TrEMBL record:
This is Putative AGC family protein kinase. Belongs to the protein kinase superfamily. ATP binds at K45. Keywords: ATP-binding, Kinase, Nucleotide-binding, Serine/threonine-protein kinase, Transferase. Signal peptide: none annotated. It comes from the Eukaryota. The keyword Metal-binding does not apply. GO terms for molecular function: ATP binding; protein serine/threonine kinase activity. InterPro entries: Atg1-like, Kinase-like_dom_sf, Prot_kinase_dom, Protein_kinase_ATP_BS, Ser/Thr_kinase_AS.
Amino acid sequence: MIGCFPFNTSWKKSDFYRKERLGKGGFGAVWLMEEKSTSLLVAVKEMDYYTEKEKKMVTSEITIMKNIYSKVQQSTSSSFIHVVQPLGFFLNEEEDKAFLVLEYCQKGDLRKYIENMKLSGTEISEQKCNQIIGELASTLKQLHSIGIIHSDLKPDNVLLTSEFKVKLADFGIARQLQFGREYITAQGVFIKVQKCYEITVKRNKMKIVP
C-alpha cells in the first residue's frame, strides 16, 4: 500500500516513462509507467475520452474509485486496504484520451497467475489457495461493510501485490447499496451485509432495510 498519497490532477503524459502494456480490454489499455520525478511505478489505465458517453463513463469510474477507497480507508481498522488505490488523473485532449493513475500490483492479476502455474506444470498448493480465498473474503468484507457490491468479481480483476496480498480493481460497474431500494438477483440468494445493511429476498428481488 502506498499510504496517504494525495490524488494528483496536475500530472501530464510527459511526466511518465511508458514501460510495458499490462493488459487490454474494451475500455482501452493498462500500462506500467514510471513517474519521472519519484521513480514510482504505477499502473495507468488509458481510456477513450471523445464522446459524451465516454466522458461520463470515465468521470463515473474515477468518482467511484475515489469514494470507495476513501470509505474503506475510513471504515476499516486494518492497516491493509484491499482496494487498488487511485493516485491521480489527467487528460490528453489532443489524442482524446483520459488516464487514470493507479497503484501498481507487481504480481499481476489472478488469471495470469493461474495460467502461469498451468504452463509451468505447477499445482497451486492448498496453503496458497486458502490464502487467496481468505484474502478475497477479507476484501469483500471490507466492501460489504460499507454497502458496496463490486458486481464484476473475476480473476482478471483480482490483483496481487509483491507480498501476495489481494487487491480488487475495476469498479466501473460497482454499486453502492441504498436503504429501501430493490435489487434484482438471478439466484435470489439471501445476503446480509454486515451490521448496518440487511438484504431480504422475495421472488428474486433484494430489498435493503436498516
